[in-house]
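Support request, please re-run this one:
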Amino acid sequence: MQKYADYIEKIEIESLWSGRRHVVWELDRKVNILSGINGVGKSTILNKLVKSIGPTGDLTSNALKGVHITPYPADATHVRHDVIRSFDRPLLNADMLAEVGANLVTELDWQLFKLQRKYLDYQVNIGNRIINALQSGSPDAAARAQAISEPKRKFQDLIDDLFSDTGKKIIRSENEIRFTQIGETLYPYQLSSGEKQILAILLTVLIEDNRPYVLFMDEPEVSLHVEWQKRLVDLILELNENVQIILTTHSPAVVMNGWIDKITEVSDITDNE
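Re-run finished. Output below.
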C-alpha cells in the first residue's frame, strides 16, 4: 500500500557537482524560495530533487545516489508532485506534433494540452462527487455539493480577473478550457506566453484537488509581468492550501507580498566538503 507524504521536510545532496558542495536544506511546510546568482546551482538542486522522486513520486526506488529526501510523515513511500518549467521553447518532437496537430508549437502548448486531459478527468471526478452529495439525503447536501464545486469556480474567477485587461473570459459552459474575447473563441495555445504560463500553473494546482503535494517551479516568473509575479504564491495557496511550493527565482517581485522570509540563498545551504 502506497503511503503519500504530506510534504518534504528536508533534502540533502552529498555532492552538487563532482566532489563539491554538500547541500542540506530544511524546508518550510508551505513556501520555499531558492535564490542566488546564475550558475550557483539553483536549477541543479531542483532538477536533482525532481529526478530523484521520478515521475511516479516513488521515494524508494527512484532515489539518485547521494540525494536524500526526508518526507513527512517519515514512513511515507511516495510524494505527489508537479513540475513547472519557465521557458516557452519551440516543440521539436515530431511525434508529439503528429499526435496533437500543428496548432501546438511550443512546450507550454504541449503542457496545456496534457493539462486539458487531466482537467476533463477532474471535472468528471467532482461531478460524480456532487451527484453523490445531492443524492445522500443529508440536510446539508446542497452546501456540500457547492463546496465540492467551489475550487473550480474560484479557479475560473481568478483567471478571469488575471486576464481582465485584455477582455478574455473563460467560457464556463464548455468542458475544455476555452476563452471568449470580443465575441471570438480562443484556445489556450492562442494566448501569450505569460498567459499560458499562469494558466498552466493554476490549472496544475487545481487538478490536484486539494490533496497534499509538492509543486516544483524553476523560475516560473520568466514570462509573467510584474503584477502577476507579485501575486503568484498567494494565487497558488488560494487554490490549494495543502500545497508545498519549492521554487527558484531571480525576481524580487515574487517575494514582495510577504514572502521575503521564505527566501533561502544557495550559499546558506551549501558547503565545499
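Residues 17 and 163 are 42 Å apart (CA to CA). DSSP finds six helices and twelve strands in the chain.
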